[in-house]
Amino acid sequence: MPRHFTAADNELIRSQLLAAGLAHFTQYGLRGMRVDDVCRDVGVAKGTFYKFFEHKEALFLAIADQRDQMHKAETLAFFAQCDGPVTDRAGRFFDLLVEKLRSDPLVAIASVPDDFAALLRKMPPERMAHEEEKDLLFIQEFCDGLRSKGLIGPVDPHDIAAILTLLVSLVLQQNLFSASQFSASCALLREMFVQKLTATAP
Questions:
Q1: Rounded to an integer, what distance in angstroms lies between the CA atom of residue 169 and that of residue 111?
Q2: How far, in Å, CA of 3 to CA of 118, rounded?
Q3: What is the pLDDT of residue 97?
Q4: Which residues form the HTH tetR-type domain (predicted)?
Q5: Which residues, given as ranges, of the chain have pLDDT below 50?
Q6: DSSP letter string over 152-202?
């Protein structure tokens, strides 16, 4: 008789699948990661995995969403603790974003062209639109928070979103650049980010 999972069981299994998935994706990449191995580590049947995730790409995207929320919370907390002129604080905020993008194992996986293409094939257009809306909302809230503290004036969040989209694209394709080209490009985007964000600072 199949085991009945309670809501608490389901929450625990899902969190374990996310944790095991991150470990396996980090070690083996998207194509090398095997659902069977994740199930073995968690101690569930393969059929149980598919009750939570339609395919391994769905697991990857769920982990990416979890890490995205974590990174956003950490960067906001970092900025809140910074002191000094708002231009310096904005620059340090940008530097932290670069560090997180370059060190996150899932970003490294998405940098592999075939893996990125596989993810895009499994991501419906409405999910893409949702991710864009979610990022824009985060930027809007970030800018509104600065404005409420009197640190900046009105800022178009679409401008900030465009710069950060370029940053993500740059990091995903950094293997196409020399170290000096990559550094110079990051520096230029940093300058644009700080200028756009703080141009209306008091």
A1: 9
A2: 33
A3: 94
A4: 11-71
A5: 1-2
A6: -----HHHHHHHHHHHHHHHHTGGGS-HHHHHHHHHHHHHHHHHHHHTT--
- Tell how far CA 40 is from the center of its chain: 27
The closest of 56, 66, 63, 61 to 32, measured between CA atoms, is: 56
Size of the chain, expressed as the number of residues it contains: 202
pTM, two decimals, is 0.87
Give pLDDT, residue 2.
46
**97 within 8 A of 164, measured Cβ to Cβ:** yes
Q: How far apart (Å, rounded) are the C-alpha atoms in residues 38 and 27?
A: 12
pLDDT for 75-89, tens place per residue? 888 888 888 899 999
Q: Rg (Cα) of the chain, in Å, rounded?
A: 20
Rounded CA-CA distance 95/73 in Å is 15
Cα separation, 190 vs 184, whole angstroms: 10
Check residue 106 and give its pLDDT. Answer: 93
Q: What's the pLDDT at 3? A: 60
CA separation, residue 109 to residues 28, 52, 87, 178 (Å): 9, 22, 33, 20
3-state helix, strand, coil in the chain (%, to 5): 80, 0, 20
For residue 60, give the nearest of 103, 100, 107, 93 by alpha carbon: 107
Helix 7-32 to helix 35-42 angle (10° resolution) is: 140
Query: What structural domains and CATH numbers belong to the chain?
Result: 1-53 (1.10.10.60), 55-198 (1.10.357)
